[in-house]
From TrEMBL:
Residues 14-144 form the DUF2489 domain. The keyword Transmembrane helix applies. The chain crosses the membrane at residues 6-26. Pfam families: DUF2489 (PF10675). It comes from Vibrio panuliri. InterPro entries: DUF2489. It comes from the Bacteria. This is Coproporphyrinogen III oxidase. Keywords: Membrane, Transmembrane, Transmembrane helix.
Length: 162
């Protein structure tokens, strides 16, 4: 009789602990799903912000408000931060912009440029102007395509705690 009662009590305790462990595993699964959903929303919000900036840069480049070399540097670098499915292979999809970026990326800018000798500055200017004039039409067309490509993705996402 004592053994039977102990076995029943042990079985009830084990059943209770197993139920509690199952409940905890279910809560853990829900928490991981929620974290993954929040991470996806954060990535979408970040990408939307990036696309809004790229859209503005494309508009400035198309309208000629900024040098194409400056636009190529900014757009190429900022598109490198896109995450997820919207990430682009910029070198393949926009070869002219990518080519201009690779031409001007190592050229001195700002104070470094002022520190160069006049001859070096003129050589860099000449190389930059040659590349810009040769690629201008293709880059403007690529900026139009890029602008259209990021336009539908440019949706602001409000993240709220659930």
């Amino acid at each position: 009789m004592n053994v039977t009662l102990l076995a029943i009590a042990g079985g009830v305790i084990i059943l209770g602990l197993a139920s509690y462990a199952g409940y905890l595993l279910l809560q853990l699964k829900k928490q991981k799903e929620l974290q993954l959903r929040h991470q996806q929303l954060a990535i979408e919000k970040r990408n939307a912000n990036i696309f809004e900036n790229v859209h503005t840069l494309c508009l400035a480049g198309i309208q000629g408000q900024c040098d194409l070399s400056e636009i190529s540097i900014r757009v190429y670098c900022i598109m490198d931060y896109v995450q997820g499915d919207e990430r682009l292979d910029f070198d393949k999809e926009f070869p002219a912009t990518s080519e201009l970026y690779h031409v001007v990326k190592d050229m001195a800018r700002g104070e470094d440029r002022q520190a160069l000798s006049k001859k070096e500055r003129m050589q860099q200017n000449l190389a930059r102007h040659k590349a810009e004039s040769r690629l201008q039409d293709a880059i403007v067309e690529e900026l139009k395509v890029l602008q259209q490509k990021v336009q539908p993705l440019n949706n602001q996402i409000n993240i709220q705690m659930l």
